[in-house]
TrEMBL record:
<protein>
    <recommendedName>
        <fullName>histidine kinase</fullName>
        <ecNumber>2.7.13.3</ecNumber>
    </recommendedName>
</protein>
<feature type="compositionally biased region" description="Low complexity">
    <location>
        <begin position="52"/>
        <end position="62"/>
    </location>
</feature>
<dbReference type="InterPro" id="IPR038515">
    <property type="entry name" value="CpxA_peri_sf"/>
</dbReference>
<dbReference type="Pfam" id="PF16527">
    <property type="entry name" value="CpxA_peri"/>
</dbReference>
<keyword id="KW-0378">Hydrolase</keyword>
<feature type="domain" description="HAMP">
    <location>
        <begin position="183"/>
        <end position="236"/>
    </location>
</feature>
<feature type="domain" description="Histidine kinase">
    <location>
        <begin position="244"/>
        <end position="453"/>
    </location>
</feature>
<dbReference type="InterPro" id="IPR003661">
    <property type="entry name" value="HisK_dim/P_dom"/>
</dbReference>
<feature type="transmembrane region" description="Helical">
    <location>
        <begin position="12"/>
        <end position="31"/>
    </location>
</feature>
<dbReference type="InterPro" id="IPR003594">
    <property type="entry name" value="HATPase_dom"/>
</dbReference>
<keyword id="KW-0808">Transferase</keyword>
<keyword id="KW-1003">Cell membrane</keyword>
<dbReference type="InterPro" id="IPR004358">
    <property type="entry name" value="Sig_transdc_His_kin-like_C"/>
</dbReference>
<dbReference type="InterPro" id="IPR005467">
    <property type="entry name" value="His_kinase_dom"/>
</dbReference>
<dbReference type="GO" id="GO:0016301">
    <property type="term" value="F:kinase activity"/>
</dbReference>
<dbReference type="InterPro" id="IPR003660">
    <property type="entry name" value="HAMP_dom"/>
</dbReference>
<dbReference type="Pfam" id="PF00672">
    <property type="entry name" value="HAMP"/>
</dbReference>
Length: 453
């Protein structure tokens, strides 16, 4: 048979199983020796004392005159009330004295008849011991001793006699063992779960601890780490590509704008040249934002820190309130407390700022921002009383460059990257973002973020 290696999970369970089995077998083998109700040898000091008594009785009856039975009756006169009784038999097992004897004695005599190997056994409360040799002239007699055991039977005997309590004790003893086993077996699974949660939060970092423990989990951990590294590599590559493209596009754009400026100077203003310039400017802004977005994503993990809601957003909200006032709009927000958050401060600030700025831009004259906490999550809602977004486009506004059909024609609109940046930032911080219709008539954006411990 090929034995499983102990480094594997299967092997460990196998080992624990066999150890437990061995323990049970050992206990079962030992039990009969410990149970006083089964026949077993007498402890040495006690055996010596009994043998001394047998010798002294031998010398007393050898000197005295009279019949043997009468002589013996001196020792066997009913002393049961004192919790002690001697019995004498012939070597053939016939009881000589006392006349009245018990079932226990008769049973014991048939089992213990060799004075060279005296035994003892418990019958109810009576402990029978013997036989011990007593000499009477040329005859040999056997002496048995019965005495009451006053101390209560050992704990395990009491338990063995009560199956329900035995079951309870077994459960009591085995529960911590099983709990430990369950804990030890699930430890690597929990590590893997924590690592998966970290990845879900956007932390693509390999964890060397995953590659320890039993063989199965070691392999799973190694595969997991490989996957994380591969994803990390892929994301990094993509982000770098985006960042490089944006960067590279900037130089020809700048040259284009310089060329239009030169053309304007040579040929004077024309509608076409102005149009080229405006579009080039728009492209430049877009590329600038794109560059900003990719820069944020590339380094977002390295710049995570412990902060709180108030220090993140208070200044931004005050600025926004001032800006809204300038446009004749009223912006109000509920109290901002120091709820703990863990993340990249710049990303978190611009995430909310983009939503608030949209509300100011697209709202008519009223913007409300509400902060609440619920079950270790911070919930933020931003509402305005503008036109809102058609229901069938609510899910699309988080896509990069997406602009609602009515806004597309508006010359005043932005690039359509603001909400994409917000969505990406919130997702990287294990949060959620959702757009819906506000009771005020405009758009309602609801954000939730996990609070850190
Ligand atoms: N509060 C709002 N009310 C109505 N429409 C909105 C609101 N917020 C966003 N939108 C719509 O969603 C689109 C996408 O918003 P997003 O913030 O991504 O881009 P943007 O505001 O147009 O440009 P920018 O990149 O400068 O923010 C907007 O063009 C607009 O049509
Ligand atoms: Mg915007």
């Amino acid at each position: 048979m090929k034995l499983p290696r102990f480094s594997s999970l299967y092997g460990r369970i196998f080992a624990v199983f066999w150890l437990t089995l061995l323990l049970v077998v050992l206990i079962l083998l030992l039990l009969p020796n410990l149970d006083p109700r089964t026949q077993h040898t007498i402890p040495q000091p006690q055996q010596e004392r009994f043998q001394e008594s047998a010798a002294s009785i031998s010398s007393q009856i050898s000197h005295d005159g009279g019949s043997l039975e009468r002589k013996l009756s001196r020792f066997t006169d009913d002393k049961r009330h004192k919790g002690f009784q001697l019995y004498f038999t012939t070597t053939d097992g016939d009881v000589i004295s006392p006349r009245r004897n018990s079932k226990a004695l008769r049973n014991f005599i048939t089992m213990a008849d060799s004075p060279s190997h005296p035994k003892q056994k418990l019958y109810g409360r009576w402990m029978m011991a013997g036989p011990f040799e007593v000499r009477h002239k040329d005859d040999t007699l056997l002496m048995y001793i019965g005495r009451i055991v006053r101390e209560p039977p050992p704990f395990f005997i009491q338990i063995l006699d009560k199956p329900f309590q035995l079951l309870l004790l077994t459960m009591l003893v085995s529960t911590p063992l099983l709990l430990w086993l369950a804990w030890a077996i699930s430890l690597p699974a929990r590590r893997l779960q924590n690592a998966a949660e970290r990845v879900a939060k956007g932390e693509f970092e390999a964890d060397p601890k995953l590659e320890s423990g039993s063989k199965e989990f070691k392999q799973a951990g190694a595969s997991f780490n490989q996957m994380v590294q591969a994803i990390n590599h892929m994301i990094g590559g993509q982000q770098r590509l985006l960042s490089d493209i944006s960067h590279e596009l900037r130089s020809p754009l700048t040259r284009l704008r310089m060329a239009t400026a030169l053309a304007k100077r040579k040929q004077g203003e024309s509608n076409e040249l102005t149009r080229i310039d405006t579009e080039a400017e728009r492209l430049e802004t877009m590329i600038g934002e794109l560059l900003e977005l990719s820069r944020m994503q590339v380094n977002s993990h390295e710049q995570r820190e412990q902060t709180d809601a108030a220090s993140l957003w208070y200044d931004m909200l005050e600025d926004a309130r001032f800006e809204a006032e300038q446009c004749g709009k009223a912006l109000s927000y509920t109290t901002l407390e120091e709820w703990p958050l863990h993340g990249n401060p710049n990303l978190l600030i611009s995430a909310l700022e983009n939503v608030v700025r949209n509300a100011i831009k697209y709202g008519d004259d009223k913007i409300t921002i509400r902060f609440t906490t619920q079950a270790m999550r911070l919930c933020i809602t931003v509402e305005d009383n503008g036109e809102g977004v058609p229901d069938n486009e609510l899910g699309d506004i988080f896509r990069p460059f997406y602009r609602v059909s009515t806004a597309r024609d508006r010359s005043s609109g932005g690039t359509g990257l603001g909400l994409a940046i917000t969505e990406s930032a919130i997702r990287q911080h294990s949060g959620t973002i959702k757009a819906s219709r506000s009771k005020l008539g405009g758009l309602k954006v609801s954000i939730t973020l996990p609070l850190s411990k």
